[in-house]
Write a structure and sequence with these properties.
2 copies of one chain form a homodimer.
Chain A (H helix, E strand, L loop, with lengths): L3 H11 L22 H5 L14 E9 L12 E9 L12 E5 L5 H7 L1 H10 L2 E5 L13 H4 L3 H4 L4 H18 L7 E6 L1 H12 L6 E5 L14 H13 L1 H18 L4 H8 L9 H17 L7 H11 L6 H13 L21 H13 L21 H12 L7 H6 L4 H5 L6 E6 L17 E6 L17 H27 L6
Chain lengths: 510, 510
């Protein structure tokens, strides 16, 4: 049994599977275009300053705590936040669509702004936009407060994907009725974990959503569907494709770090070489930072900066004769710029984790500990990293110690499937777009082939995590413009088909 | 607030929506063919004497109490019973199908025998037969005993259709793996409530079941999808089609009963006319018995007896000049035969309710009180019965008083849909047979039109509740033989398609 602190350490540092979903973490990776929205966001939507919230209205829905259980406690309610933008809506009579953003592992504060695909395309579709916050994130927290809700597994127990999908089902059903919009087609959309939810929602609630756009949704990264090293294999490929020598330098660097670390003053020297904001306490700390940096760069390898290239240019651009460790540091400087110090709490730019609020991190860690058991690992020779196999036993120990919960690693595939997805869905289901960018390591767990005429895969070789659902920019490369256009055309086709059915059918059973 | 006894009375007597699902209640309606199996069944499968259990093996699966919740209590387990017949199975290597019976609101004891469609067709398909008992029925009861499990809404709260479907998902997934039968197509089948579960299972778990046979599944009898008087309208039509004068006699009889009942010795006279086993305490008691008799006769209007005709022949065959009440009694005698007395606890043949064990009745009543809110009612002039509109308020009061639970009348349509089913499923889902017999009043809530090429409705004008999934008999009418043949051919087509896909595809994502 590990203690609580060790458990935390295991969860937050050693395993990189924990902070690596999320669409909009790139905001923190020094990309001016997305802006440091989080820093201004505070905890409430009202606090936002940079984004024009004029068109958005915030509401709360009185949500049932447990949809699948009839114990008295299950009837407890909480206020679930959702945001509505009706500026562009054609209205219920026009059968204009309703786009529903299926909230992910973060409060709505940032998503509403960051998921620009919605607002960009609302005018064309005359669409009503609805963003629903996922339970236990943002302000949509049961039991009155985050402190109460996150107290232990008795209060956290209601925090599951199936409950979240049922939340969305209830809110959408309520809103359609309330707006007399029963005839308006609903298209759900989301990215990363939110993209999984969007695709699962279309599959489980076809009577509520007519189609789904699932951006960068690694719905196949469960159990043994894909090899566990898929994630880090893509990170490796990204760096290797950027530059073979960069890849080789990184690959060798871990041994250089280990070699230095075992010397008596090794950690001090490493702290100096890497200008760490506080002295390193272990070589693992440094390696964790670097793994996180490389993974983040690959996952959010967005134009126009392309952080993988930025890092590799730094590494390869260091003067000849420089040591491997100096080259690695040059990569960091190329990425972050010249700073007083790097890494750690005092750093100007922190790791991806710090992008999330502590509550959001805690929320996602709970989800990983209960059902979102994404088995990311690495073998000895398959990536540019050192081996680190996925270890369910350690995860289980840590989750028990930290949350008092035992992971159910088989549940997601039991509830949502994933194995043999083409056979299963080629004659079942319809109207799902699985979009991916192949530079995103999570694309390895995405659907990358057309399953049927209307369950399709749209991916770009150069794209990365959730890129397609971010706001369009005049400088976007043509392949990205083209990907978004394809998605828009497909969705327009669904809506046309829906409305054509509507006019030719009548009666209760039709 | 009504008290517990009043609540019980409301639930059991006044509303006839409570005992009217169930496939095999007809066993108690004096049909020798099905036999009085229940009487011999006792509480355990081993106790059966009439049915040859040689080919069936009984197992238990250690089932999770709550699939959608991660509270410590959710991890509690219970033993869920399932029965396997592998006599005809072609084996895992042959890709022979697995037929799974999705248990309904009764213990497995009777279903395994009564659902003869399975055993009848297993040899042709070389099918493995699996029957899974529904949680909280039979021996598949959590908390160690029925007494504990049914104690209050805290222990009953885990008793829901979504949990039952997830139970089936877990057991089937486990068995396929355990038998190395991952490549064998699973076809789920069930009748009435079990038929709803079969169709919902195919819709929610397409990765586990490749097709579903949903016999007499009134999945549209929820919320406002169909008129609330649909059930009793069909009962009325059945009697009217049997004989217009029979229908008229029944229609007038309620007023005759009321007229008599208000006399000072009226109940005594009524008790004498109807030879009740104990003196009537109210006219409603008598009317309840009669409604139950007529409804049951319509629902189970099976060949060769056709109980509706039997009753009507009795009514119409009474000597000219006989009073309406005497004619009604003659109908009862025609149905039950000459007995010492009729109705009530001392009667040789009791109402449908007595077919079920008290635990099963209690279980179904809980389900009605929580989510299976089937709004059966009647207006003033639409049926041969007196008006009795569906009354959600009274149901809610009774359910609160008796179980401490508040019904969720919108949940089933939110979770499983039902509105506009043709629009929703015409391009979504596949491989479902909705079978019905139109004499069954529940067929009014069934799917009676083809939705797509592979979601089809197969019904017979003369058939009744679950008739198609009962054992075949040499005397079966041709329309019944033909219905069953159609179902078998369609299922054979699914399996052929499945196996053809299997041989042309490979790889993890296919």
């Amino acid at each position: 049994m590990v203690n609580r602190k060790e458990a935390l350490s295991l969860l937050f540092i050693t395993w990189h599977l924990l902070f690596l979903t999320g669409c909009f973490s790139a905001t923190n990776l020094n990309f001016p275009r997305l802006g440091m929205v989080r820093k201004n966001a505070g905890k409430s939507l009202e606090a936002k300053t940079q984004f024009d919230w004029t068109d958005f209205q915030i509401f709360n829905y009185t949500q049932t705590l447990d949809h699948f259980n009839y114990r008295p406690e299950s009837y407890t309610t909480f206020q679930q936040r959702y945001v509505v933008n009706s500026r562009y809506w054609g209205g219920a009579n026009s059968s204009s669509p309703i786009f529903v953003y299926t909230g992910d592992e973060a409060g709505l504060d940032i998503d509403v702004e960051a998921a620009g695909f919605f607002t960009d395309n609302a005018p064309r579709f005359k669409a009503l936009l609805i963003y629903i916050e996922h339970r236990y994130y943002g302000t949509s927290v049961p039991f009155g407060s985050t402190e109460e809700a996150f107290q232990n597994s008795s209060t956290l127990g209601y925090f599951s994907s199936a409950q979240a999908l049922a939340d969305y089902a209830e809110i959408i059903t309520y809103l359609k009725k309330n707006l007399s919009a029963e005839n308006c087609p609903v298209i759900v959309a989301g990215g990363s974990y939110g993209g999984m939810l969007a695709s699962w929602f279309r599959l489980k609630y076809p009577h509520i959503a007519y189609g789904a756009l699932a951006s960068s949704a690694p719905i196949l990264y469960f159990e043994d569907i894909i090899p566990e090293d898929a994630y880090y294999s893509v990170v490796t490929r990204d760096f290797r494709e950027s530059n073979e020598s960069c890849y080789n330098t990184i690959r060798q660097s871990w041994f250089e770090i280990d070699k230095m670390a075992i010397l008596s003053n090794g950690l001090t020297v490493l702290s100096q070489i890497f200008k760490t904001c506080s002295p390193l306490e272990s070589s693992q700390e440094l390696k964790g930072y670097l793994e996180s940096l490389y993974s983040g760069a690959a996952q959010y390898d967005f134009p126009p900066q392309y952080p993988v290239d930025t890092i590799c240019n730094g590494i390869d651009g260091a003067p000849p004769g420089k040591s491997i460790l100096s080259r690695i540091f040059a990569g960091i400087v190329a990425f972050y710029g010249e700073l007083d110090c790097y890494f750690g709490e005092k750093s100007q730019y922190q790791s991806q984790e710090s992008f999330y609020t502590p509550e959001e991190l805690d929320g996602w860690h709970w989800q990983v500990c209960s059902e979102m058991v994404i088995p990311i690992g690495r073998g000895s020779n398959d990536t540019m990293f050192q081996a680190q196999p996925f270890d369910l036993k350690s995860l289980t120990e840590a989750c028990q110690a930290y949350y008092g919960v035992i992971p159910r690693p088989h549940w997601i595939t039991t509830e949502y499937g994933g194995h043999n997805i083409k056979s299963v869905l080629q004659r079942f289901g319809s109207n799902i777009i699985f979009s991916n960018g192949l530079r995103d390591p999570y694309s390895s767990g995405g659907v990358l082939q057309n399953i049927s005429d209307s369950i399709v895969a749209i991916y770009t070789a150069q794209g990365a995590h959730c890129l397609d659902i971010l706001s369009a920019s005049p400088n976007d490369p043509t392949w990205l413009v083209s990907q978004r256009n394809s998605e828009v055309e497909i969705i327009a086709g669904w809506i046309a088909q829906y409305n054509s059915n509507l006019t030719t059918s009548s009666g209760n059973q039709t």
